[in-house]
Amino acid sequence: MKYKIVVIALLFVGMWACKPELNEFKASKGSADFSVYMSAGNSLTAGYADGALYKSGQQGSYANLLAKQFEQVGRQGDFKIPFVESEDGVGNRGAGLVTKMKMGFSTDCKGTTSLAPVLANPNASQAELFALLTTSVAANGPYNNIGVPGAKVAHLLAPGYGTLNPFFGRFASSATASVVSEIAAVSPTFFTLWIGNNDVLGYATSGGIGDVITPIDGPPGQGFAASYEAVLQSFGQFASSGAVANIPDITSIPFFTTVPYNAIVLTDQSIVDFINSQYAAYNQGMELVGLPYRINFSLGQNPMVIADNTIPIPDGVPIPKIRQIKSGELVLLSIPQDSLKCAYWGTAKAVADQYILTEAEIANVTAAVTAYNQVIAVAAETHNLALVDANANMKKLASGGIRVDGVTFTNAFVTGNVFSTDGVHLTPQGNALVANYFIDAINAKYNANIPQVNVTEYPAVVLP
Predict the structure, then answer these.
(1) What is the C-alpha R_g of the chain?
(2) Which domain holds residue 367?
(3) Which of 16, 105, 181, 441 is deepest in the core (most CB within 10 A)?
């Protein structure tokens, strides 16, 4: 019995001796100075989400989440945000203003009810929304988050930009102020910059017809490279350190990947035969002029018929410039679903250019994103800044996703947890992921030890 007692005692001694020490996490600023933080960029920085700017979206912006984490490494004072004092918010849609979207029940043209993004307040008047957007909050500034929805890189340099963009005008310190002129009033010691998305996104979201891609070359205020450099120099007058993020490829964004190219599903052979008969003359005409385009439908999934004004049909030949979409081309989320279901879009009627990105247009976007990201990478190295590879991280979400704290994150529309109901901007969980991408890059660059954001503390898309 004594032997057993001695053995048990020795075991306890051994267990105590081998007990690992728990090293408490110690936050550290490394070589950076976070005492005054300022963020600049476009709608992603501002906290725009669900098609609008609204208060909880602004609170959930990656910039605000970073500000909270920076408190543990010396950030002082308030991180001021030009809040829209509304949970319905205000955003642009076409020529009008709308509230944010939320998930709700919608009935389509066939009488089927399903979950879909709907306006939070479809009855909000244009006058009410205009007042919300244009009421100045400049007196409460200067602001630490100067993200401006709709801004391109050159816009940050433009004096009086607030007269053209009310999202800036509402918090601009004067009618002649530029976005970068707001930096001096805050005198940041550390900054983040995520800009350039809109320099190509406007072209992409218009189907390649409504906006132009910003050229790389040109003076500040015109060319991407010189404008980006000028913005960094404006921050460099005050901040000794910072972080910049590059631009994701559009194929990472659900606005461009949710609607399949072969969304025309046919289950009745008689309908297939009828549609094909309607395109017999088209097919014969294309054969006569020596062009390869043919339109043919079959049972099952079929590529949409789209308009394509680049088809080289000889002058005077009465063949419409239409074709079936290719598998690598993209259908935009903005395409009216009821038109596909009930107005014969994609079969009897060609889908308009504004809802499609063709191979050539995708190539234009890809070339621009590649060139912009090269500029951003070189600028980060030249100015000794942390570089956040948002492009690579978003591609991970698009190629299988990532798992954090038991939650899977992908680029799937609504269900992927990252993107809001507009298919472009982020949910609070998506912003938390982005904040952590910034933190990883900052820690690596400045030998800091900033704690990461707990992603699961924040919501994704809320379902009714």
Answers:
(1) 26
(2) 37-257+360-457
(3) 441
- 55 and 102 in a single domain? The answer is yes
Largest Cα–Cα separation, the chain? 109
pLDDT tens for 100-110 read: 999 999 999 99
Burial of 114 (0-12, 13-18, 19+ CB in 10 A): exposed
Helices (H), strands (E): how many in the chain?
16, 17
Smallest CA-to-CA distance from 390 within 436, 424, 459 is with 436
Question: What is the separation of C-alpha 122 from the centre of its chain, rounded to a whole number of angstroms?
Answer: 24
Question: Are 351 and 370 in the same domain?
Answer: no
- pLDDT tens-digit map of 284-339: 999 999 999 999 999 999 999 999 999 999 999 999 999 999 999 999 999 999 99
Question: Contact at 8 Å (CB) between 224 and 200?
Answer: no
> Which runs of consecutive H residues, i.e. helices, occur in 237-358?
254-257, 269-278, 280-288, 337-342
Task: Please give the Cα distance from 29 to 138 (Å, whole number).
Answer: 31
Q: Do 338 and 438 belong together in one domain? A: no
* Within a domain: 208: yes
Query: Dihedral angle at the C-alpha atoms of 204, 441, 53, 144, nearest 10 degrees?
Result: -130
d(CA 181, CA 164): 16
Domain assignment present for residue 18? The answer is: no
Q: Is residue 14 assigned to a domain?
A: no
Q: What is the pLDDT of residues 8-55, one digit of tens each?
A: 333 333 433 444 444 567 999 999 999 999 999 999 999 999 999 999
Q: Which residue has the tokens 């920076």?
A: 70
Residue with tokens 């309607």: 278
Q: How far apart are CA 123 and CA 366, in angstroms?
A: 39
Could you give the angle at which helices 359-382 and 198-205 cross, rounded to 10 degrees? 170
- Together in a domain, 179 and 323: no
How far apart are alpha carbons 173 and 8 in whole angstroms? 74
Does the reported pTM lie above 0.70? Answer: yes
Asked, for residue 281, whether it belongs to a domain, the answer is: yes
Give 212-266 as a DSSP string. -PPPSSSSTTTSHHHHHHHHHHHHHTT-SEEEEE----GGGSHHHHSB-TT-EEE
Which of 317, 338, 358 is at the close of a domain? 358
Domains identified in the chain, total number: 2
Query: Which residue, of 358, 393, 414, is where some domain finishes?
Result: 358
Does residue 103 sit in the same domain as residue 72?
yes
Sole residue written with tokens 């630490």: 144
